[in-house]
Amino acid sequence: KILIVGACGQIGSELTQALRDIHGKDAVIASDIKPSTSSELSGEFFEILDATDYENFKTVVTKHDVDTVYMMAAMLSGTAEKFPEKGWDLNMTSLFNVLNLGKEKLVNKIFWPSSIAVFGPTTPKVDTPQQTIMEPTTVYGISKQAGERWCAYYYKRYGVDVRSIRYPGLISYKTPPGGGTTDYAIEIFHEALKSSSYTSFLSKDTALPMMYMDDAIQATIAIMDAPAESIKIRSSYNLSGLSFTPEELYAEIKNHIPGFEISYESDFRQAIADSWPDSIDDSEAKSDWGWKKDYDLEMTVKAMLAGVKSLKKVN
Ligand code: VAH
């Protein structure tokens, strides 16, 4: 069985649906720290699970005979700057718990998400390479960099089959923004359709690596389906989809909503974004396990506008 930890989150909720579409609902156990309102994330294939509680984690894994865990629970960059110790504790304890389940042979395959947040202001900003200087300046980035080292250690020392991707900013419409620095690229679609204006908390020329959620989900499934021997990097793989600025995103949305207006008021997240790369080189992911992006900026904007509109009809 597959267990998704953090199944109510931005990635977890879509990963749960995608894996259930492939393996069937009864093969994928969703779990989160709190009960969920949505029908797919409740009922007999849903468990309340605090990922920082090892005994709770172990109980769920043995009860459902889990062999594969996607450990998606984390505190994201913006929120972690407000609660540094809590952010470190959640992000690291949940990782150690799932790695130790692997070391104890209670599960035999693990996915853990890293982020382009592992890079810092001294990292080359354009086409950031897989191996390079990494001096992250955020709590979230520090936790993801440390987490990558522990994944590589547990693979080398204990043979734990843990696989990881450095996600760029992910753009999706099915869950509300979760406290990330790249959330402007989600909020902007809701505001464009609601009030035809948006105030961006990042400046107009802030280029960031981004990706539409469907691409992130297909990459996650691809790296987990790949044969173990093809996963040559056991810290975490660079992954790149798009790179754009708020001004470029605004211009593409304006093609669909002519009256849409944007203004810029940087907040504390500007310093976080300024410490991250503009774009990423993901050639290793392409060569090792066949990664190929589908969504360009035009397709992402079309999908997001259609998606947000579809939510309005439902609610
Ligand atoms: C964040 N969306 O903003 C996440 C992600 C690269 C950004 O890690 O914290």
Automatic annotation (TrEMBL):
GO MF annotation terms: L-threonine 3-dehydrogenase activity
Gene3D superfamilies cross-referenced by the UniProt entry: NAD(P)-binding Rossmann-like Domain
SUPFAM superfamilies named in the record: NAD(P)-binding Rossmann-fold domains (SSF51735)
Listed GO biological process terms: L-threonine catabolic process
A Pfam family: Epimerase
Domain NAD-dependent epimerase/dehydratase, first and last residues per copy: 2-231
InterPro entries in the record: Epimerase_deHydtase (IPR001509), NAD(P)-bd_dom_sf (IPR036291), NAD(P)_epim/dehydratase (IPR051225)
Family, as annotated: Belongs to the NAD(P)-dependent epimerase/dehydratase family.
Full protein name: Nucleoside-diphosphate-sugar epimerase
